[in-house]
Write a structure and sequence with these properties.
319 residues, alpha/beta, Rossmann fold, globular
Length: 319
């Protein structure tokens, strides 16, 4: 909050001594870093990463800086800092909102998008953009499933929580699981708990580290998302032979492929019909299971292939 207020002030204030003081204070907030061990790898974390960047550049001396999932203000400052040090940058577009970063005038050395639809939009605007899907570690979530529940991950509005609630109301014989992915704030969690109390066929599960238990009872993954992105959970589910019912947004259509169905969020009817059929028609369900598993195993989304693509791009820029 302090950083946001100081950032606003630094933009609004006229040039002068007071503005220089505000800018110095702004650039000092949240720059202290700490080191974390995650999956055996050492990570440096900071509350305000753009303020910590200069220290990281000094200590690490990177050949390339990859920027992912930051807001526009952070991208602008990171871009300026890297340009000043003559360090190439890759802006990795993984969310539709990140398309607006280019409107700031701060352009990366290279653009990468993790969905064909986002890459197409960037190319249509005249930008060179590579398509490289996200790396997904499927070994963590691989396991058997009893195929007894309809699973939805992240019960928030942009993830289509209202659609899930309507489906649960209209299909009381089907058990639903709402899995918390990142911790919800207390108010959101209280609302979810209240709705679960009203619907006996809905279970809420708190956030937990990724593992085989995530999909251990899923018959289908529900993804009625309102944001055009490429969620990792689609590939995780399909690799376990779990079909996906998702929104008809371009990135989701590409990610789901033949391993599920896509439909508009605005009309609940097709969702009800599709979900009921997955419970009632064993032959149809078996065909979607096979298609989901096949789609989840396509070579172009495998970790080694994706790693080779990003390594080739980094090598090109570093040289």
């Amino acid at each position: 909050m302090a950083y946001a207020k100081l950032s606003d002030l630094s933009v609004q204030m006229p040039e002068g001594a007071w503005r220089r003081i505000v800018v110095r204070l702004r650039d000092a907030v949240g720059r202290k870093t700490r080191f974390l061990e995650v999956d055996g790898l050492r990570h440096r974390a900071a509350p305000v990463l753009e303020n910590a960047l200069l220290g990281a550049i000094r200590d690490f001396a990177p050949d390339v800086v990859i920027v992912s999932s930051v807001d526009r203000w952070a991208w602008r400052r990171i871009s300026d800092a890297c340009n000043a040090q003559r360090i190439p940058t890759i802006l990795y577009i993984r969310e539709e909102s990140s398309l607006k970063h280019l409107a700031t005038g701060a352009l990366p050395t290279r653009l990468v998008a993790n969905t064909p639809s986002l890459a197409h939009r960037l190319r249509a605007d005249g930008h060179r953009c590579d398509f490289i899907p996200s790396v997904v570690d499927l070994t963590r979530v691989s396991g058997e499933t009893s195929r007894t529940t309809a699973l939805a991950i992240n019960p928030t509005f942009i993830k289509g929580a209202d659609v899930i609630w309507r489906l649960a109301e209209m299909l009381p014989s089907i058990p639903f699981v709402l899995q918390e992915a990142w911790p919800l704030d207390p108010a959101e969690r209280a609302k979810v708990a209240q709705r679960c109390d009203q619907l006996s066929n809905v279970e809420f599960r708190h956030a937990q580290p990724p593992g085989p238990d995530l999909y251990s009872d899923a018959r289908v993954l529900l993804a009625p998302y309102r944001v055009d992105s490429r969620p990792r959970v689609v590939l995780e589910a399909q690799a376990n032979g779990i079909p996906v019912l998702g929104s008809d947004l371009p990135a989701l259509v590409e990610a789901i492929g033949l391993g599920g169905l896509t439909m508009p969020v605005a009309n609940t009817g097709p969702w009800v019909d599709a979900l009921q059929r997955l419970w009632d028609d064993d032959g149809y369900y078996a065909s979607l299971v096979a298609a989901a598993r096949l789609h989840g195993q396509r070579p172009e989304v495998s970790a080694p292939v994706v790693t080779d693509l990003i390594e080739a791009l980094l090598t090109e820029l570093a040289s």
